[in-house]
Request: fold
Amino acid sequence: MQTRKVNDFPKDFLWGASSAAFQIEGAAYEDGKGLSVMDVRKVKPEICDYSVASDHYHRYKEDIALMKECGLKAYRFSIAWTRIFPKGNGEVNQKGVDFYNDLINELIRNDIVPIVTIYHFEYPQGLVDQYGGWINRRSIEDYVNYAEFLFRTYGDRVKYWLTINEQDHVVHMPFRLGLTDDNRKEKEKLGFLANHNMCVAAALAIKKCHEIVEGGKIGPATCFEMMYPTTNNPADMLATMDAMEIRNYYLLDLNCRGEYNGTFRRYLEDRNMMPEIYPGDMEAMKENRPDFLAFNYYYSESISANPLDDEHEIGDIEFKLLPSKEAGIYKVVKNENLKATLWGWEIDDTGLQCSARLLYDRYRLPLLITECGFGNKEVWPEEGILEDDDRIDYLSRHIRAVKEAMNLGVDFIGFCCWSFIDLISGHSGFSKRYGFVYVNRDEHDLKDMARRKKKSFYWYKRVIETNGEEL
Ligand code: BGP
Reply:
């Protein structure tokens, strides 16, 4: 809806940026850190591994000084579970504990609010080796103990906590559970078992946070893919509603309402994928509601009906990393109205406004954008600075979408761009950059790792200075 006036951002809006430990820190084998599933994952030879990343572990002070210069109000980062508990449980690694104490103190000294993700993809390989990881009930206790340790150690200074990053992606990507990539159909079933255990674990961590951290706020950080019916054929609308339930809302309904919604329950039962629910599981979720809902938003999807045919039966799924086609339910198709990034992610700021309004309508929780950004191939020019106008355009539109959603009553806490400095992409190594600050390294040539401010750095600084007036 267009209105005569669009309200300003509130004064305490958290202008921030995001990262994840394994993508930024490096020092993967230093100071007692244990191995995570990301460390042991075999990457394609043309792509770098996570061992050095952006070397933030050694250069965090320099990076925080740049954040301060840019005017960041908040920094969302994750704690590497295996720096704290190298095997996932048992002995604590003091050097890891010290690192995050130093990082948090440095942020606070620079007036930057720390927002901490407890677990961002890097599940301890030790727990997979001990008992299979998330697919075993024992995982619940180990996650809760780890979270409790963080609350007791850092909770005096960290007031914003995120339980699990993109649990929905973990569910559908076996390697993130420490499982092999073969037999994806069977892995879907295990994924939903892991999902249940993660939901119980997150709910119990919320309880602990509320008990331990004075003034603490905690919520999930999900990935929300806005979905549109491709045509006005009612069958496409139905397919879109189904896809939204089984790809987006299934998890948030568990996290925020403590329920398996009707469509999702039927979906799981029909495919013999319903996990066993133990006494107290659903109560734990119902009784421990998050304080806010964080979400990562990059693109939208166009959905068409996908009726069963002679070649496909119920349960047949095709993946493009995530499920992209399910027989008898839906398929993702190209949206002819949108441009896309080099990786085919369709750029859609309107989709962000739609997502925010749908989420706020359904859960009535304050929202926080924990990731939003534009990945690109970039080379620092011989003269001048890198002019990343596409990134500026992308972010400017998406921030405006948040402003417009707020104008219509949606409650937002802040906006964290992905990312502040260049870091390793989840699937495309160092060739897909997201930062306001260029890190001088290539896929395999580490060069000098110097930090260089791109044009977007100055743009974001101005956005923050004007509290979103100048976009
Ligand atoms: C999200 C993850 C991040 C980050 C981002 C960009 O799914 O939470 O860790 O990687 O996506 O994705 P990519 O790096 O694949 O472009």
